[in-house]
Specification:
The protein is mainly β. It has a single domain (about 15-105), classed as Rieske [2Fe-2S] iron-sulphur domain (Rieske Iron-sulfur Protein, 3-layer Sandwich). Helices cover about 0% and strands about 50% of the residues. A hairpin with a 6-residue loop joins strand 6 (about 70-75) and strand 7. About 25% of the residues are buried.
Length: about 120
């Protein structure tokens, strides 16, 4: 497994992301409240560029007819069909069986790296 340095931490301020290409992968690097996460820029539904979608929150568990918005800036919504994914885990919000690939992020000094490997 190799670390590929793709950005400086100052290039991705909190609440933003950057799409990079590494070893044949298009990867979105997200800064969620100071923590960096990396997701494959590919929606498992129909192949949309997932990281072009909106970063938002979602409705969280609540009483019947009560709608509580939460998890702001932690959810990535596919631009084609609205499938939602947890930026921190890559898991979809609607099924335990659907996810997008998550890459390990390495911070070294002021550099952000992603791990690509066998």
């Amino acid at each position: 497994m190799a670390v590929h340095y793709v950005a400086g931490i100052n290039e991705i301020p909190e609440g933003t992301h950057k799409i990079v290409d590494v070893k044949g992968f298009s990867i979105g690097i997200y800064n969620v409240r100071g923590e960096f996460h990396a997701l494959n820029n590919y929606c498992p539904h129909q192949g949309a560029k997932l990281c072009k979608g909106e970063v938002c929150g979602t409705n969280i568990k609540s009483q019947v007819y009560q709608y509580i918005y939460g998890r702001d800036q932690e959810i990535l919504r596919c631009p084609w069909h609205g499938w939602e994914f947890d930026i921190k885990t890559g898991k979809s919000l609607f099924s335990d069986k659907v996810r997008t690939k998550k890459f390990q992020v390495v911070i070294e000094g002021e550099k952000i790296g992603v791990v690509i490997g066998a």
